[in-house]
Amino acid sequence: MARIRETAHLAGATLAFARSSEDLERELGSAPDLVIVDLTASALDHARLFAALDGRTPRVPVLGFTTHTLARQTQPLHVHCTRVMTRETLTKELGSIMKGGRRMTADEFVSELDDRNQAVLARLSPDATLKPEVSGPLNVVNLLKVALKNEIEATEIAARWLVSTDDVSVKMALARQAGDEAKHYRMIADRLRELGFEAHGFDPIGKGYGPLFQYLDTLTTTVERVAAGQFTREAIAVVKNRQFIEFCERAGDRVTASLYRDVIEPDERFHHLLGRSLLLRFATTEDAQERARRAAARTLQLAEELQAAALKTAGIHHAPGC
Ligand SMILES: [Fe+2]
Ligand SMILES: [Fe+2]
Fold first, then answer.
1. How far is the CA of 293 from the centre of ligand 1 (A)?
2. pLDDT tens digits in sequence order for the chain, 322 residues long
3. How far apart are CA 99 and CA 184, in angstroms?
4. How far is the CA of 302 from the centre of ligand 1 (A)?
5. How far, in Å, from the CA of 315 to the mean position of ligand 1?
6. Cα 265 to averaged position of ligand 2 atoms, centre (Å)
7. What is the DSSP string of 53-91?
8. What is d(CA 105, CA 88) in angstroms, rounded to the nearest whole number?
9. Whose atoms come closest to the Cα of 185: which ligand?
10. 151 CA to middle of ligand 1, Å?
């Protein structure tokens, strides 16, 4: 604490310590530039604390800090933070953070977001990825049925967004994606037929849309949509497809493996890159960057929740993504 005081003094920043939610609520009255939250402090009522922050407009930027060991445990709180870093990084950067720093360029922002996403994606370990929706045994046919659902949802969300944006280049990017996802759907349906399952007449969304689709459908700004739906969701797809390819190979299904390796996976990678180029155009203000961060974090959180549910129910999951 003495060190924080010293750093604040050197940076010319005014500092207040809030040891409880009540303290924080009082301090918010003085419109602080930044709130730093110890996400590992078990004595803090984080739910109440974030509710107090969420209740204010404009929302005060929140820097949450955690540790490598507790990162997974504190993960549900990350979505509430503008930035999350480890205690170590915070110690190193505290001086420049308190000086206010300069605004991040879109380029810096995109590489920071990429680093964050990759850190979470690294945890989607090869032998334990998501899959609560598989009904029946875990085999290529049943996983491809889940893939049909993912492809139709990806087609539809891109199509919905296409008609609700006025920006021509965004429209065209989404049109390209919708077309690709629809192509994936057809190729997977053809492959299922070869494997003896007639996809014609099968309705992959008969039981309704999944939680990720429902979340994406609530997003209204382009920066949130491309951060969540393309930049992050497609990065998840690349990881999951790699795992699915391995699964197919282990199951001796080289045809499905090469469909994914040669056609689908390169398309999903391209969709991620489309997201990156649109983010570079749209994530140029602090507000846009904050929205993008939160949308990406929520997308990853939903993916992790699905994985946790899958581990509990099915044990493992290798369902491909889009
Ligand atoms: Fe796809
Ligand atoms: Fe895709």
1. 23
2. 777 788 888 777 888 888 888 888 888 888 888 899 999 998 888 998 888 888 877 778 889 999 888 888 898 898 888 888 888 888 888 877 876 655 688 998 999 899 888 888 887 655 444 344 455 567 899 899 989 999 999 999 999 999 999 999 999 999 999 999 999 999 999 999 999 999 888 899 888 998 999 999 999 999 999 999 999 999 999 988 998 999 899 999 999 999 999 999 999 999 999 999 999 999 999 889 999 999 999 999 998 887 776 556 554 455 777 7
3. 49
4. 18
5. 25
6. 8
7. HHTSSSPPPEEEEE-TTTHHHHHHHHTT-SEEEEHHHHH
8. 24
9. 1
10. 5
The residues that bridge with 86 in the sheet, in sequence order, are 66
Total-model pTM:
0.70
Two structure tokens written together for 287:
């507000």
- What is the distance in A from the centroid of ligand 2 to the CA of 232? 11
Nearest ligand by distance to the CA of 152: 1
**Residue showing tokens 């085999």:** 139
Q: How far is the CA of 181 from the centre of ligand 1 (A)?
A: 4
CA-CA distances (angstroms) from residue 249 to 242, 259, 310, 313?
11, 12, 22, 24
Query: What does the block give as tokens for 183?
Result: 């192509």
What is the Å distance from ligand 2's center to 194 Cα?
23
Contacts of 7 (CB under 8 A, 6+ apart): 94, 95, 98
Give the SS3 label for residue 51.
helix
Instruction: Please report which ligand is nearest the Cα atom of 174.
Output: 2
Burial class (CB in 10 A: 0-12, 13-18, 19+), 196: exposed
8 Å CB contact between 307 and 317: yes
- The bound ligand whose nearest atom lies closest to the alpha carbon of 263 is 1
Q: Give 3-state DSSP helix, strand, coil % of the chain, rounded to 5.
A: 65, 5, 30
Of all ligands present, the nearest one to the C-alpha of 187 is 1
* CA 64 to ligand 2 centroid distance, Å: 31
